[in-house]
Amino acid sequence: MTGALAPAKPLTALDRCDRCGAQAYIRATLPVGGELLFCAHHGRQHAAVLRDRGADIQDESARLSQSPTSDQSGR
């Protein structure tokens, strides 16, 4: 084992917060294996502590402020 993490797949609408069940925008991959998913609210509450304990944080909460057409070709 090399210890390198595989690139995380993007979060989808099917990924749900482990605290409240809302759509997840933050994934914390734990150093011992496994992952936790959080909505933006709960992610902000827990990300710093998890990062300090060695978790890799994938934060996609910026998607919340994007318009639905921002990823289309200027339409």
From TrEMBL:
Region (Disordered): 53-75
Protein name: DUF7455 domain-containing protein
InterPro entries attached to this UniProt entry: DUF7455 (IPR055878)
Compositionally biased residues, Basic and acidic residues: 53-62
All copies of domain DUF7455, residue ranges: 11-64
Comp. bias regions, Polar residues: 63-75
Record-linked Pfam families: DUF7455
Organism per entry: Sphaerimonospora cavernae
